[in-house]
Write a structure and sequence with these properties.
The chain has 16 helices and 23 strands. The chain is an alpha+beta fold. The strands form six sheets. The protein has a four-stranded mixed sheet. A four-stranded mixed sheet has the order 2-14-16-15. It has a four-stranded mixed sheet with strand order 4-5-3-13, covered by helices on one side. It is elongated and about 70 Å long.
Length: 456
């Protein structure tokens, strides 16, 4: 039996109704990092002992990864943002397509399954349609560690060569600092024989969090967060309790929303250094930032146009490019937003222009001339971060906006509209009456005006 959530199709019948020109005020609690929690769930496959993950956000992507682990034979107990994981009775080394499709992070399981069991079969990954995210770096790295890789009918089949059924440490140099490849190879190398070095490794906080948990489990990983990571393989890994780091992308989204509305809020808990590229740009654009311990206070003022170029950490995160673009639509002066990571991550530009923003798009560079106001309207988010950007745009706008595409939003933001409501924004989740019964979880059709606005 395959566990599949019906939540996503049901979410297509929902929208957020936003009353524009609102102000934020107060304190908001930041949830655990989605991108960290997903890879930590995959890493739990490396041991037969119990793993307890704390501060896990309740998101549809987390639910999907949980269903993937359950289908492998993992026992999961999920309660109040804490998940207990028991992987000792894994009976399957193959992930079903029905679960992997739409969740790119599921591919990270290949490194853990291969290293622990000597073989793995994983369908090619899905996820948000924001551009090409090839798995070449993952595959080449696993081959360098001693795996035979065959891709047949969209299935990646990996097997360890030789009789010892162990991967062998080696030197790997990534062509680009891919977060997914770095995480996959760290997990694979943790149980390999000998030393592995990964050069040009990604340096994101989520990778540092993974290495911290693996080291608690008994791994020997050095220099996480640097461009060269060293892993000395061990024979086995044990259990541990680990708290997921705060979500820097959720934190950045709230900071940007406050800046866009000239509001004053405090966010916590956060790790301020993880947000340095974002807070620097917010300060440059006119906001006052105050950091105290694990909290950040922002006081939004008159917005000035600033330029950003997305870049791997510690640069400006691609996941906050869309929300920051929404902020720049009402800035004084001109700004330039350059997306350097994903080629299809400008889907929100079309809709911001419909709202009255003055933007010229040339490939992956948006040239923005700030306007005084944008107008509310019905909008459909096409991916996770563009959905957050459209909600910010709706908060800025004059009039009422309705944002559809919540199946994307709920993948990465825990209780987003509830947190905004607590900060004073007039926002409500509506349930479309044109749907079938909840058990069928299916929409009859989308209204023509929504189809017309859908981003390709």
């Amino acid at each position: 039996m395959i566990c599949v959530s019906k939540k996503k199709s049901y979410l297509k019948s929902q929208n957020l109704k936003i009353f524009g020109q609102g102000k934020l005020n107060g304190r908001v609690k930041i949830s655990g990092a989605k991108n960290s929690a997903l890879v930590l769930l995959a890493a739990s496959l490396l041991t037969n002992e119990r793993i307890i993950l704390e501060n896990v956000p309740r998101l549809t992507d987390i639910e999907k990864m949980g269903n993937i682990l359950k289908n492998l034979g993992v026992n999961l107990v999920d309660k109040n943002n804490k998940i207990e994981i028991d992987s000792k009775n894994i009976s399957v080394k193959e992930l079903p397509y029905e679960l992997v499709n739409g969740l790119r992070a599921s591919f990270f399981c290949i490194g853990a399954l291969l290293s622990k069991f000597g073989e793995a079969k994983v369908p090619l990954p899905g996820g948000c349609n924001i551009g090409s995210r090839p798995i070449d770096e993952h595959i080449n790295g696993l081959k360098a560690l001693g795996a035979e890789i065959l891709i047949e009918e969209e299935i990646v089949k990996a097997k360890i060569k030789g009789k010892k059924n162990k991967l062998y440490g080696t030197d790997i140099k990534l062509k680009c600092p891919s977060v997914g490849a770095t995480e996959t190879l760290i997990m694979a190398a943790s149980l390999a024989e000998g030393r592995t070095t990964i050069e040009n490794a990604a340096r994101e906080p989520e990778i540092q969090d993974l290495c911290q948990m693996l080291n608690k489990m008994g791994a020997k990983i050095y220099d996480a967060g640097k461009e060269k990571i060293i892993i000395d393989g061990v024979n086995k890994l044990g259990g541990c309790t680990h708290k997921v780091i705060p979500d820097r992308i959720e934190a950045g989204t709230f900071l940007i929303a406050a800046a866009a509305t000239s509001s004053s809020i405090t966010i916590s808990p956060v790790i301020p250094i993880h947000l340095e590229a974002v807070t620097n740009k917010l300060q440059e654009s006119g906001s006052k930032i105050t950091i105290k311990g694990n909290s950040i206070k922002i006081k939004g003022k008159e917005i000035k146009g600033v330029d950003i170029d997305t870049a791997p950490y510690p640069g400006f995160p691609t996941d906050l490019q869309a929300p920051f673009t929404a902020l720049m639509t009402i800035a004084n002066g001109e700004s330039r937003i350059t997306e350097t990571i994903f080629e299809n991550r400008m889907n929100h530009i079309h809709l911001l222009k419909k709202m009255g923003a003055s933007i010229k798009l040339n490939k992956n560079v948006a040239y923005i001339k700030g306007v005084k106001t944008i107008k509310g309207m019905d909008l459909v988010g096409s991916d996770l971060r563009s959905s957050a950007a459209l909600i910010i745009a709706g908060i800025i706008a004059k009039g009422i906006s309705k944002v559809y595409g919540l199946e994307h939003l709920d993948r990465g933001y825990e209780n987003f509209e509830s947190k905004l409501k607590m900060l004073g924004i007039k926002i409500a989740r509506e349930f479309n009456k044109r749907t079938l019964t909840r058990s069928e979880c299916k929409i009859d059709s989308e209204p023509k005006e929504i189809i017309d606005l859908r981003v390709a």
